[in-house]
Amino acid sequence: MEIKKVMVIGAGQMGGGIAQVSAQTGWETVQYDINMDLVNKGIALIDKNLSRNVSKGKMTEDEKAAILGRIKPSVSLEDAADCDLIIEAIVENFAIKEKVFKELDRIAPPHAILASNTSSLPITQIAAVTKRPDKVIGMHFMNPVPVMKLVEVIRGLATTDEVYKIVEEASIKMGKVPVWCKDVPGFISNRVLQVMINEALWELYEGVAPAENIDNIMKLGMNHPMGPCELADLIGLDTILSILNVMYDGYGDPKYRPSPLLKQYVNAGWLGRKTGKGIFDYK
């Protein structure tokens, strides 16, 4: 199957980034969210990202205009009716994803592949709410999507080799490096990453050191480009808590038990950069 038209569900940081890369690949791209304000906000961020590339000489104004011209704003899931690949990038909440995938399964053409950008929820469980579990797969992009090269490709229990191959080739066309893994809680990336971030938050909670010191240890001593506290704020503390909860429930291992401080920050609405305050203050 040749991919010609893509729909991205969710116009937030991840969804907008995926839509941008899809349009840059040359595909007609539908950018969907639940209201036009969110869609316009997402497209405005894409415009800003592309303008930065123009100012750096990485693309021309004509190329930028062509990319934006391939992005169609949408507030209706019915626009999935003629899409070849639909990538969901919404909140890490299974009940919400379940509702969306049931609708997409009803609307999308029989050949369409339904992909999820979930960072931790089981692909097999998501696939099971559809009548096409063989065509459901995980495409876990990294943040920021236009910059990061990796796509973690997760095969559900029923995902066919053909669907995996199509998604693998699509990822390469998008300028990404696809790396596959089995459908386990947290996959590869977050099973490793979130333990480190959570441990940093436990250290912060226990008063071992301030956040700046924890980050400097990892940046200057371990050659990490960004410390775990700064990275947590970039990802979003609510997202991190959701991922840790999925892994704690999935494995029953106390090493995934979220730090009480993480829960406290999320309850306070201190979610990181997106709210102006998290572990660090961005206001």
From TrEMBL:
The keyword Oxidoreductase applies. Its EC number is 1.1.1.157. Residues 186-282 form the 3-hydroxyacyl-CoA dehydrogenase C-terminal domain. GO terms for biological process: fatty acid metabolic process. Residues 5-184 form the 3-hydroxyacyl-CoA dehydrogenase NAD binding domain. Keywords: Oxidoreductase. One of its GO terms (molecular function) is 3-hydroxybutyryl-CoA dehydrogenase activity. Pfam families: 3HCDH (PF00725), 3HCDH_N (PF02737). NCBIfam families: PRK05808.1. This is 3-hydroxybutyryl-coa dehydrogenase. It comes from hydrocarbon metagenome.
